What does this fold into?
Amino acid sequence: MRKNIVAGNWKMNTTVAEGVALAKEVNEALKGSKTNCDVVICVPFTHLCPVADVIDSNVLGLGAENCADHEKGAYTGEVSASMIASTGAGYVILGHSERRQYYGETSETLREKVALALANGLTPIFCIGEVLEERENDTFNDVVARQVEEGLFNLSAEDFGKIVLAYEPVWAIGTGKTATAEQAEDMHAHIRSVIAGKYGQEVADNTSILYGGSCKPSNAAELFAKPDVDGGLIGGAALKCADFMGIVNAF
Ligand code: PGA
It folds into this structure.
């Protein structure tokens, strides 16, 4: 069956020293408690190696926040999936709405990134979600289905089974405005039915679908109690150990 996962997305926050200290704190907190989910932190590229050195990979997974859409070569400033894997990281966030919005990522580039992540043994945490206008004009179900289809439905069923999805309504990211647990559940069930239509019910049932967007200790339990919500992708609240652990312990 599918896994419950709480993943932190640190975005462009913390110096290396601050990030290492935070990772250590989370690692220690996890060692001292029994959790009912897998826990992952996705950190800036500069932090991957030093963080990998201080965490126990049996209790805390490590990921990057993006990877290049090429294998290697003359792409100044880019970081490849194989470089990420060589740090010991096991995950990579792909298609975050901030990357789609500010850096022009399209389904086409994302298909390349997903393929390279999988080829290098990384688990993609593939983000999808509608903007406020699409929520208000009632096109959100179609928009999100299209993001899943265009970004991922070129994969074999076996490869699709390696993907973690994160539904993040853009209007809820960093705004303090969380989707209600009902809105999240409706969308997650919709996404699962879209997956079932392509790959069958078993693959759909085995896919972890995380919710992201102003998830915090005070609302995590209600969200995670929904049958199709399999955890969270956590931005702001992942930057404080107590808040992040509050969400982890909501399971
Ligand atoms: P937030 O970010 O929790 O700060 O809203 C979530 C995300 O963008 O992954």
